[in-house]
Amino acid sequence: MSSAELESPFELCPELDEAFLDELSFMILKVVEMTMQNLNSNFDDNYTRETCIYGRVRQLFLQLARDASKPWLTVKSKTMDYVPSICNIPVRVFRDDPLNPKKKKVFFKNDCEQSQLALLFDDFDTQLASQITWRLFIQAPESNLENGELEDLEDDFRVVLVGFSAMTGEIRSMWQSKSASRAVPYAIDAELPEANILERKPVKSKEVDTGLANENGKQV
Description:
- By secondary structure, this protein is α+β, with helices and mostly antiparallel strands.
- It has one domain.
- Helices cover 28% and strands 16% of the residues.
- The chain contains 5 helices and 7 strands.
- Strands 4-5-6-7 form a 4-stranded mixed beta sheet.
- A hairpin with a 5-residue loop joins strand 6 (158-165) and strand 7 (171-176).
- Helix 2 crosses helix 3.
């Protein structure tokens, strides 16, 4: 089932903004790419990579929540089972297959998520809020990873937003990031610092005391 065969999340939930999802997805994929490149030693395996990806993505959300220029993203629960909100819509983040999630908690709303939805009942349709469970997936490429490196730029990690039916667990809506992080150009605005000019000072040769004296008692 492709995303084109499902309802658009932006029609199903007009509060969501695709531009924000694009921006957020790019940052998530950069963190994933960096992690895969860092954890590429003989002492790394899927466990070290997966746990590090989870922790780093969580830290990304916590830092973005403190960014005043991004009021559309907040994190109400900062525990390990954190709950970010995108455009006031609570979501939860998983490293799993969006079409066939293996983690059962994907389909369950935790206490923080339910309380956030309760606060939104006055802003949009209560029935709709209770029927949809929004999840943000970091989807791994289908091809195998060799030494922690991706084989093909066109076969890369992606971010997928899925709206599940809260009653049946069936997928009602889906959106996926347009491109992988490495395929998207981005500006580097950091400037190199100016070089410091060091003043050269004359160096005097050091006299060495040989301990030898001539017949007049003078050092030689």
